[in-house]
């Protein structure tokens, strides 16, 4: 599963790493989203 994490707090990094270890594709995004990026 592809998971987009829109949370930049350091306390959530352990959760994101756990999801990666389960075999999910995890993208951590800390910047402001732009409409054209979301559409792509």
Name the features.
40 residues; 2 helices; alpha+beta; two-stranded parallel sheet; 35% helix
What does this structure look like?
With 40 residues, this protein is an alpha+beta fold. It has one domain. Helix content is 35%, strand content 20%. The chain has helices spanning 13-21, 35-39; strands at 2-5, 25-28. A two-stranded parallel sheet has the order 1-2. The chain starts with a strand and ends with a helix. The mean pLDDT is 87.
Number of helices: 2
- Could you tell me the number of beta strands? 2
Task: Describe the sheet with the most strands.
Answer: 2 strands, parallel
Side by side, the strands of the main sheet go 1-2
Overall form = flat
Radius of gyration based on Cα positions: 11 Å
Provide mean pLDDT, rounded.
87
What is the string of SSEs from the N terminus onward?
EHEH
Q: Approximately what portion of the residues adopt beta-strand conformation?
A: 15-25%
Q: What proportion of the residues is helical, as a percent range?
A: 25-40%
Distance between the termini: 17 Å
| Unreliable runs | none
The total domain count is 1
- Structural class by sheet pairing and helices: alpha+beta
């Amino acid at each position: 599963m592809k998971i987009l994490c829109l949370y930049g707090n350091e306390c959530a990094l352990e959760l994101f790493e756990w999801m990666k270890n389960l075999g999910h594709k995890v993208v951590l995004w800390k910047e402001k989203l732009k409409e054209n990026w979301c559409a792509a």
